[in-house]
TrEMBL record:
Superkingdom of origin: Bacteria
SUPFAM superfamilies: UDP-Glycosyltransferase/glycogen phosphorylase
Keyword DNA damage: no
MF terms in GO: transferase activity
InterPro entries referenced in this protein's UniProt entry, alphabetically: Polysacch_pyruvyl_Trfase
Keywords, alphabetical: Transferase
UniProt name for this protein: Polysaccharide pyruvyl transferase
Pfam family, one: PS_pyruv_trans
Residue intervals of the Polysaccharide pyruvyl transferase domain: 170-368
Phylogenetic classification of the source organism: Bacteria, Bacillati, Actinomycetota, Actinomycetes, Micrococcales
Length: 439
């Protein structure tokens, strides 16, 4: 191996090394071009063409099969109670055979009463928005879509591209594929941030011409209307669901003492940016010192944004540990409804925990993330109780909680608004095309 003395020029790259460098540069250039709006439009158009050609070659029946199923594409799930709650709400409102497109076999729990009618289509690459190598998954989905009545994408907070551009664009383009294969395409229960990814925004605008888009809050609807995208104002799917299930361990703990209970959640997603554990530990001590008990309730239990790890850190700091219960397993949505119904208030950094509480008429203080909470708060007149998760917010949360608990009419006001919100949430499931005015 040649030795280069200090100050000497490095030897020039030989032909093999130059070829490797050139290939790498071409790959990076192609990848950058692919994830642009034009690149993704071309890639998905080519994918649709290949899929439809494949279906034509495989067609053997003289006439189309009857459309006898509904297909739903789910969010990531796997440890997220909110994702599970949206899935269960969809099942409760959709009779008959259902094909659920999931990222992994353990991403969701299929309720026992639905297991005979729900089939799982595993599509990890498609769900993650990965273009390379997903051809077999797209073809399998297309086979289902050509005999499907509807294709629904549960949009949640994915569609504006704030988390992942490729996931958002893939879902928008699959709505277009479903429409062209004859299924009624619908995007359900999604938010739209103030600063959406421009490529995701362009993809959604294209999808809006071939699918019905049910946005879940009025502020998201206003943002999309300003961008010229036609949507139908709705509400989160979870508002359509009900039913409670008693969580044995929590119920036993609550029964020991008649003192009122506050449910507190610390979000692992927020914790990645801002450490609020010391401030929330002080909040917990103030709540218990005032004669209340605290249930620390994690909402997402998974690597990357694990609420349980953050809640556990707060629990070990409690000055009165006998008055604090840490829930250490993933509850079912019905169990969360049972707990929140019996709470005097909920403090949370997770939107779907707030929604589950509101379905029970329980008031909430919510920490804002990604611009998706403000619209929910407006629907219930709770704008003063949404706060930014910044250092120093702890005392502000305490004041908001005190005001919320002290407002003796707040539960009644939430209860008055709940029926209209539930009616909005039902819109995607109306069999006839909604008569609502499009925004």
């Amino acid at each position: 191996m040649p030795i280069t003395r200090s100050g000497d020029a490095a030897p020039a790259a030989g032909p093999p090394q130059r070829w490797v460098m050139l290939r790498h540069a071409l790959y990076l250039g192609a990848r950058r071009a692919l994830v642009t709006d034009v690149g993704l439009r071309v890639a998905h158009a080519a994918e649709r063409t290949r899929v439809r050609a494949s279906l034509r070659r495989a067609e053997t029946a003289p006439s189309p099969s009857p459309r006898d199923r509904d297909v739903v594409m789910l969010a990531a799930g796997r440890g997220n109670i909110g994702d599970q709650a949206m899935f269960e709400a969809y099942l409760a409102n959709t009779p008959g055979e259902i094909v659920a497109v999931m990222r992994s076999a353990d991403a969701y729990v299929i309720p026992e009463q639905d297991r005979a009618r729900v089939r799982v289509l595993l599509a990890p690459l498609l769900s993650a928005g990965t273009l390379r190598g997903r051809g077999s998954e797209v073809r399998a989905l297309a086979e289902e879509l050509r005999v499907a009545r509807t294709f629904a994408v549960i949009g949640a907070d994915i569609m504006d591209g704030g988390y992942d551009r490729m996931e958002a664009v893939t879902r928008a383009e699959l709505l277009r594929l479903a429409h062209r294969l004859g299924a009624r395409a619908q995007l359900l229960g999604f938010s739209w941030g103030a600063q959406p990814d421009r490529v995701a925004a362009a993809a959604l605008a294209r999808a809006a011409r071939e699918a019905r888009l049910f946005v879940r809050d009025p502020i998201s609807a206003e943002r999309l209307a300003a961008a010229g995208v036609s949507v139908i104002e709705s509400a989160d799917l979870v508002f359509t669901a009900d039913g409670e299930q008693e969580p044995a361990g929590v119920a036993t703990w609550l029964a020991r003492d008649p003192d009122p209970v506050v449910v507190i959640n610390l979000s692992g997603l927020i914790e990645r940016r801002t450490d609020l554990v010391p401030e929330f530990a002080e909040l917990i001590d103030r709540v218990t010192a005032e004669g209340r008990r605290v249930v620390l309730l994690p909402h997402c239990l998974r690597d990357g944004d694990d609420d349980l790890a953050v809640c556990r850190r707060a629990a070990v700091r409690a000055a009165a540990p006998d008055r604090v219960l840490l829930v250490e397993r993933m509850l079912r949505p019905a169990e969360v409804r049972w707990i929140t119904k019996r709470a005097s208030a909920v403090v949370t950094g997770r939107m779907h925990l707030a929604i589950l509480a509101l379905t029970q008429g329980t008031p909430v203080v919510v920490l804002r993330t990604r611009g998706k909470v403000e619209g929910l708060a407006r629907m219930f007149g709770l704008e003063p109780y949404t706060l930014d998760p910044v250092p120093g917010v702890g005392p502000e949360v305490g004041r908001a909680l005190a005001a919320l608990v002290g407002d003796t009419t707040l539960r009644a006001r939430i209860g008055e608004r709940l029926p209209s919100v539930r009616a909005l949430a039902q819109r995607p499931f109306e069999r006839e095309r909604t008569s609502a005015v499009e925004v």
